[in-house]
Design a protein that fits this description.
Blueprint: H1 2-10, E1 13-15, H2 22-25, H3 35-46, E2 50-53, E3 57-58, H4 66-69, H5 73-90, E4 95-99, E5 101-102, H6 109-114, H7 118-129, E6 135-139, H8 152-164, E7 171-174, E8 177-178, H9 183-194, E9 200-207, H10 213-228, E10 233-238, H11 261-273, E11 296-304, E12 307-315
Parallel strand pairs: 1-2, 2-4, 3-5, 4-6, 6-7, 7-9, 8-9, 9-10
Antiparallel strand pairs: 11-12
Helix pairs in contact: 5-7, 9-10, 10-11
């Protein structure tokens, strides 16, 4: 309960670390197990959160079930279609994004088994199952740094190839597992990716545990500020889930859910700087009240003739002043 309270005070969106992945939900052929996911989704629904679907497939052979490895191509295709149907029918409209084929620049399990159009076929199958699903690619060492297999140009080419193949990729996932960040490099990569005119999400932000807590906090703040300030970045997810054994790389709290320096960074940004806070005032002679606000959901209460009228509205991306009309 302590973790739930800590989480809900700060966040409105979540992503499951491993629980939704294929090797967790179907460890043996035909034996589907969504028990843990169901419990997590109860928490999501109860608290009106949104959740990313991570992931449908993962190209890394290390995380492919043994029973898939020796299948023929037709057998594997049938198993994949079963996976798609099982999870997307069970959780239809529950996940606001889906990572389709995780880390496809670094790994190629499905390409080796099914050919170079494996990811294209995944997109087509998922779009047939749910035409309204929001489908992403997700990759590391794009915005953090580049390596021999992944860089921003290769990533952009992959999006263009999929579009040419007739599928809609709805967004760009950047895992964002950082060591020491280079803000200028980040900005240049984000600017290049923005030419695709797709929403960009940093999907798994953390900082290497090779650094001490104070240094992690400094680097985390640099990453978050650089991403938040970019007009094409629509969302940021943290990869900081705490288990009894600790965290993958970055913890935000100690085992008693007291903030570490990284958690203090989150509180400073989310609860103090990047929030509109409470605004109070009187309308002018035209019945208007003006304010500047951050993107998000707003609740408004109007006192008029001793009657209180409550309403809600949202502020989204856009350069123009937004006009909200509330009838009293």
């Amino acid at each position: 309960m302590l973790f739930q309270e800590w989480f809900l005070k700060r966040f409105k969106a979540t992503v499951f670390e491993n629980e939704l992945k294929w090797y967790k939900t179907e460890p043996l052929p035909g034996q589907f197990n969504y028990t843990v996911v169901d419990q997590m989704m109860k928490f999501v629904r109860k608290n009106k959160l949104i959740a990313r679907g991570h992931n449908m497939f993962w190209d890394d052979p290390v995380y492919v079930q043994d029973w898939l490895e020796n299948m023929t191509a037709p057998q594997l295709q049938r198993a994949m279609k079963s996976r798609i149907k099982s999870v997307m029918s069970k959780y239809r409209n529950e996940f606001f994004h889906w990572d389709v084929n995780n880390e496809l620049l670094h790994f190629d399990f499905y390409e080796k088994k099914l050919g170079p159009k494996a990811t294209l076929d995944m997109f087509k199958s998922m779009q047939r199952e749910d035409p309204l699903a929001t489908l992403f690619l997700n990759e590391y060492n794009i915005v953090e740094r580049c390596d021999s297999k992944a860089n921003v140009d290769r990533y952009i080419d992959t999006f263009k190839e999929l579009k040419k193949g007739g599928v809609k990729v709805a967004g760009i996932g950047l895992e964002s597992h950082f060591s020491a960040p280079n803000p200028a490099f980040m900005r240049a990569v984000l600017d290049k990716l923005a030419t695709l005119k797709l929403p960009i999400w940093l999907t798994e932000v953390d900082v290497s545990s090779m650094y001490g807590q104070e240094e992690q906090a400094v680097f985390l703040e640099q990453i978050l500020r650089e991403a938040f300030s970019h007009p094409s970045v629509n969302g940021i997810m943290l990869w900081t889930a705490r288990s009894p054994g600790g965290c993958y790389q970055t913890c935000l709290t100690d085992e008693k859910f007291q903030n570490l320096p990284t958690g203090d960074v989150i509180d400073q940004l989310l609860l103090n700087e990047w929030t509109t806070g409470t605004k109070r005032g009187k309308t002018n002679e035209f019945g208007s009240y003006n304010f500047r606000g951050f993107l998000g959901e707003f609740k408004v209460s109007i006192l008029y003739n001793r009657t209180i009228v409550n309403s809600t509205f949202s502020l989204g991306h856009g350069v123009d002043t937004k006009h909200i009309t509330i009838h009293v």
